[in-house]
Amino acid sequence: GAGGVLQAGLIPPLVLKLETELDEIQELILGTLSNCLRVEVSEALAAGAVPVLKEKLSHPYSAIRSKAAWVLLEISSHAEGKIAVFEAEVIPVLLSLLEDAQPEVQVNSAGALMFALVTPQGRSSAMGAAAIPPLLTLVAEETSKARLNAIKALTLLAELPEGRQTLLEHRDTFQRCLDDPSEAVQRAAEIAITVIDWKP
């Protein structure tokens, strides 16, 4: 399991192998990494995983783009991972993947963004890369599996005055989500509206 991989010090060689292996093997490596990173992230960061994963986000094969975004999601769920993702300028690339043709890639990229935008640096990087329009598109799409992650990411951007200002004009997009079949989406939309309506 993940513990065995960690104990054996296999994370650095796995990260290296991502550079050279065949696509099918890259996919397996990304799966293994995502399991390990739930437990511990510093070894992967030290091995330079974030720049390598950033590159994989542009891979022609959608399964690899999707898994790379998932591993970045796992990395961003740790405090030190959030910093690494910001410093490697991964946020603009994740934003471009919100328009990917593959729903899984959109879901995982929106999820990674949701974690990466928790920090002030992450939020300002996202605002600089015009994050709001593509996130709003996902919220409004009919069958978007990424809706929940997108709403949560936008809620974080609504904490910035300029984010809130923009989102006030799109309040109805969140309003419509109050009737979403998913309860989690309804709850997230309620929170988003509360943050957008907040009067300082």
From TrEMBL:
Q: Which InterPro entries has this protein been placed in?
A: ARM-like, ARM-type_fold, RSP14, TPR_DAAF5
| Gene3D superfamilies linked to this entry | Leucine-rich Repeat Variant
This protein's superkingdom? Eukaryota
Q: What sequence ranges are listed for the domain Dynein axonemal assembly factor 5 TPR repeats?
A: 9-179
Q: What is this protein called?
A: RSP14 protein
